[in-house]
Each structure stands twice: as C-alpha cells, then as structure tokens.
Amino acid sequence: MTQAEEAVAVCFVVRIDDQSLGSFNSCDGLGVEFTLEQREEGGNNGMVWQLPTRIKYSNVKLSRPVTKDSSKIMDWIAGMAAGVSRRTAVIEARTLGGTVVASWALSGVVPVRWSGPQLSADSPKVATETLELAHHGFLGTAR
C-alpha cells in the first residue's frame, strides 16, 4: 500500500468509552485553536511577545446514512436522562480494507446535538443523521 492510499479514509469508526457508535462517512471539526495575547516589552522594538492564554477545541460533527447503528446513538443519549457525564471518545479513520490510518482520542466528550433525517415522499434522498460532540481536548495517541 502506498502513502497516498494510506492517507485516504473512507469511514470514521467512533467509540464512546467502550461503546461503539458504528461508522460514519463524514467527520468535520477535529481542531484546536490557541488564543494568544500580545505583550510589548519596553525598549524592545524588534518583537512583540506572543503568549498563549487559552486553548479552544472545536465541536466534532459526524454524519452518516441512517443504519441499524443509529439506535446506538439513541441508547447513549437516553442513558443520559439521569444526568450528563463526560466520556472519552476515540475516532478512527479507516480505509476500505479496515486499516486504521489515523486515530484521535478526545477527553470530556458530551453530545451537543443529534439531528435525524428529514423524511419526505417528495424528496427521494438518502436519510442521514448528524451527531455533534463537544470535548475538552485531545489525549495522547489513541490505541
């Protein structure tokens, strides 16, 4: 397998703690932003200090066609009726052959929203669902 083939992910397999949510065909929002504060030092005109102050993690959006795995999301969300608890998630990018190309472990995961398919007899589209997750950051290598 060449490097170009290894870099192509066709699905994203998601686990919350040890509970599988199945595979998704779209993963958007894996990212981090460092907020910087600028400080000017008296007598030093050659530079401005860039000091990191906060780290912000964007929400992760996962989408897929509705499948039998859709009930796994509902079971996870229903389990939070007594109270929301933060979990650990692992997202694995996999090739068609099932080889893991990359993986990300997220700490402090909570669901932000789930949106199901818009069903209409007038519009014969694939029924899709989207799950949005918030998190408190990345853990070390997920494996």
Describe what is shown at a glance.
With 143 residues, the protein is mainly β.
Question: What this model shows, in words?
Answer:
With 143 residues, the protein is mainly beta. It has a single domain (3-30, 58-138), classed as Hcp1-like (Pnp Oxidase, Chain A, Roll), CATH 2.30.110.20. Helices cover 9% and strands 50% of the residues. It has 2 helices and 10 strands, in the order αββββββαββββ. The chain has helices spanning 3-6, 70-78, and strands at residues 11-16, 19-24, 26-28, 32-39, 49-57, 60-65, 87-94, 100-115, 128-134, 137-138. The strands form 2 sheets. Strands 1, 2, 3, 6, 7, 8, 9 and 10 form an 8-stranded antiparallel sheet that branches. Strands 4-5 form a two-stranded antiparallel ribbon. The longest helix is centred in the middle third of the chain and has 9 residues, at 70-78. The radius of gyration is 20 Å and the shape is elongated. It starts with a helix and ends in a 5-residue tail after the last strand. One of its GO terms (molecular function) is structural molecule activity. This is Phage tail protein. Pfam families: Phage_T4_gp19.
What key attributes describe this structure?
Phage tail protein; structural molecule activity; eight-stranded antiparallel sheet; Pnp Oxidase, Chain A; 9% helix; CHP02241; mainly beta; two-stranded antiparallel sheet; Phage_T4_Gp19; 143 residues; 2 helices; single chain
